[in-house]
Structures are given as C-alpha cells and as structure tokens.
Amino acid sequence: MNTHSVARAPVSALLSKLPSVDKVLSQPESAQWIERFGRQELLHALRVVLDQARKMIVDDRNEACLSALWLQQQIERVLNQRHRPNMRQVINLTGTVLHTNLGRAVMPAEVIEAMMLAASDPCALEYDLGEGKRGDRDEIVEEMLCELTGAESATVVNNNAAAVFLLLNALSARKETVVSRGELIEIGGAFRIPDIMKRAGAKLVEVGTTNRTHEKDFQEALTSKTALLMKVHTSNYVVQGFTAEVAEKKIAEIAHAHGVPFVVDLGSGTLIDLAQYGLPSEPTPRQAIEAGADLVTFSGDKLLGGPQAGIIVGRRDLIQKIKRNPLKRALRVGKITLAGLEAVLRLYRDPVTLPSKLTVLNLLTRPAEDMREQALRFIPQISPDLALYKLSVNCHDVKSQIGSGSLPVERLPSAALVISGLDRSGEKNVIRLERLLRSSDTPVIGRMNEKNLILDLRCLQPNREDLFLATMRVAVMGLAGRA
User: Fold this and answer.
1) What is the pLDDT, as a whole number, of residue 8?
2) For the residues 103-108, what does the mean pLDDT come to?
3) CB 65 within 8 A of CB 106
4) Model confidence band, residue 12 (pLDDT cutoffs 50, 70, 90)
5) pTM for this structure?
6) pLDDT at residue 404, as a whole number
7) What is d(CA 276, CA 203) in angstroms, rounded to the nearest whole number?
8) What single DSSP character describes residue 401?
C-alpha cells in the first residue's frame, strides 16, 4: 500500500526542484531572449524544455536537468532551432555545379542586387513610365531576350515545364503534336513529356523508334489535326550506337510546308556557345531560331545562370496567342524573378566579362589545378585533427558534372578532398563525419563513395574557404561525442 508512494517520493522531490516559468522569466538572460525572439517564443521554449526535464526525471531520475546551465543551454537551443531558416545556406561539395536539390544556379552579385532592389521598393513592373499607364511585365526582359536569341518576341513563366505546358495548351489543345519517340523525356520530379501533353490537352503522336527517326516519319504523321511538330532536346541522357535523328532545319521545312509551327524545347538552355570556353557544346535558342524553329523554350536557372524561370521565344503572333491564354496569368513570374532575369541577361551583352561575372560559367570553367591547389592548402590544416579519429585525408583527381540534366555524359576535371578511415573505427567515423558536416550550422554537402567521403572543391569559392575550414573543425570535434 505504501510501497508505491515511497517509490514515487524521490521523483516528486526532484520535480519540485524545477523552476517555475515565472522564475525563469525573472532571470537576466530572459530579457535578452525576449529582445531577440519575443515573449511568446520564449514562453514556448520554456514549456518545451520544462516538459523535457520532467520526462528526464520521471524516466531516468536524471538530475542534470536541474542545473541552471542545462536549462539555459536547452532554452537557447530551442529558440535558435525555431528561428533557424528551413532554407539554409549550404556549401556544395557534391561535384554537381547545377544541383537541383541545392538550388541550381548560384547567381552573380549584380543579379542579387537587382532582386533586392525590386523587393525593397515599389518598381515599374506593369507600368509604362513613358505613357504613364499600365504596361506589360514581359517588356522588362523581352527586348534583351530577342536581342540574344534572334526571336521576334518573348514571354516568361515560372519554369521550363510551365513554358512547355502553356505552349501546348495554347497551340495544341484538342489537336496533335508530333514528337520523335526517342525524345519522350522524363526529368526530375516526374516531368514526362507524354504526361505534360495529356494535361495540356494535346494529343501526342509518336514517330520513329527509340534510336532512329527519319524525315518520312514526320511527313507520314501529318494530318489535318496536326497542330505542332516538336523537337525535345534530350539534355539528361544520350542514345548512342545505331541512331538517327532529323535535323531541326529539316523538321522546320516539313512543318512549314504543312502550315504548322515547329517548336523546340531546349530544357536547360544556354544563350552562348559553351565550346568557346572549353566546355562541351550545347544547343542555343539562337541556333534553333536560325534553323527555322517558330518557338523555343528553355530555363532561366540552369546554364543561363539566373533565377528560376521558363522562357518562350519566337514568332510574335504565336507568343501573343500564348500570352492570351488564361493559364499565362496563373504561371507568370513576379517582380523579383524578372529583376533577376533582366540583370543576368544584361551580363550577356558583354561577352568579354561574362566568364568572370556569371557565377555558373566561372564555376564550370575553373581549371582542375585551382581545386588541386585548394586541396593541398587545406590538407595540412585538417589532417592532424582527423588523425585523432583514425581518419586520413588526401587530394584525388575527380570528375565534376554540370547537373540539372545538362550535358549528362560530360565530366569536368576537378580535385577533391577524400577522407578515409584507417581502420574499422575510422570507417565508422567517416560516416559520422559526413552526418556532422551535413547537420552543421552551415551544412557541408559532399558525397559518399563506398567508405570514403568525397568533397569535390569545384564549387568552393575563395570567399567560402574560411567558413568551410571552420565548419570542418567543429564537425571533427563533434566526433569526440559520438558513440
């Protein structure tokens, strides 16, 4: 009868030692927390921490939670966690320059400044300053897009998938669009050309085979219901071997002879010939327009190096028809995107300074020797600490990739820090270190290859080196507290 009450007495005594909310609020540090986070946030954190303390006492008779220092540290932790952004800066050492999961293109300073100005002040988004009346937001970038692509007109939506969807809905709803079977792509996020066509109301007509499509395949597919001939750039895979495809110029001739438009979807898209910078060649909108394409779609946030956007350029009459479609308003971009896109397009007007100013191009053209020199500088600074946990670090030559479906089989020579375990305990520490780096205040994202942590330095810019080294030091110290 009394056994239960006796057993519970120590717990009750411990619980009674926990401070009240009012007592914690009266402490000097609480005033600082209220100033930084607000009273309501502090009250929430207090309740969370006190609940945790009660659980520790009841479950384990753990008295550590009665320490004033423990309470202070836990409250600080909860407050900081709640106010830490979900979209956080990371250091991209994956070896993929345009990493979709890490936000694709890192934008130049000029672009960031333009986007900040658009966000902080009213701007002439849809206002014609010359006429003093309502304007068209596409005009902010249309002139430059036409100048850089050779098109008559242009419009912008929120991404390239939206651009393809809007184009098909506006021009091919309840009609047929002819595409080579070898170009029915799927990209990340379950974007499939057949599915997009179905949702847009267009009927897909596949021609040719997976590996070979000929002119006669397009000619034989044409009917009175044909609305478009379409070519899709297979940017995220390559079909090799016994293959054949029809050139854009020839498809354009077939389409125009039948009186229907020819559309090219370039996907990642670039406005310049990358070969001039020693990179693999990628088709450009200008080349497609010159080959006879009536409309071309491409992205703004991949090889172009700007904010997320889907761009449609081409014949003025077709662009106007697309813009009259009700979906255009649903898919349009806001002022911040347009400000960033305008700023990045302006950089393309000066080809001489473009490689140094366009961040994406700068990262893609970094010589492997730059990364190798970085790695050799870092190794003496981190090797001694790593050795304490049976870890070694070496510089290895590796291959980076462009990413986001761009030039999938092409690789860029690079250099990486490769961290390996010297024994079984070291191998476990490699896995722990990867997790610690990933969970840091500024996460460092590398890649695991078997039992090695590979940190490709291609995307580590000089102004982030100190942050990387500091993060590495803290993460390695964290190994001491890991079982």
Assistant:
1) 44
2) 94
3) no
4) confident
5) 0.89
6) 63
7) 40
8) B
Helix 68-83 with 39-60: angle, nearest 10 deg: 130
Q: Which two tokens stand for residue 19?
A: 């401070």
Name, in order, each residue with C-beta under 8 angstroms of 182's C-beta and a sequence gap of 6 or more.
Answer: 208, 209, 210, 211, 212, 213, 234, 239, 243, 245
CB–CB of 180/213 below 8 Å?
Answer: yes
Question: Dihedral of CA 87/92/98/99: which sign?
Answer: negative
Cβ-contact 204, 155 below 8 angstroms? no
The answer, yes or no, to whether residue 3 has pLDDT greater than 60, is: no
DSSP 416: E
More confident: 190 or 219: 219
Cα gap 345→243, rounded to integer Å: 36
Distances (CA, A) of 327 to 200, 324, 354: 10, 8, 35
pLDDT number for residue 407? 55
Residue 55 structure tokens: 């659980």
Give phi and psi for 225, each to the nearest 5: -95, 0
Cα–chain-centroid distance for residue 282? Answer: 20
Length of the chain counted residue by residue: 483
Residue 77 neighbours by CB under 8 Å, 6+ apart = none
Separation CA 266–CA 206 (nearest Å): 19
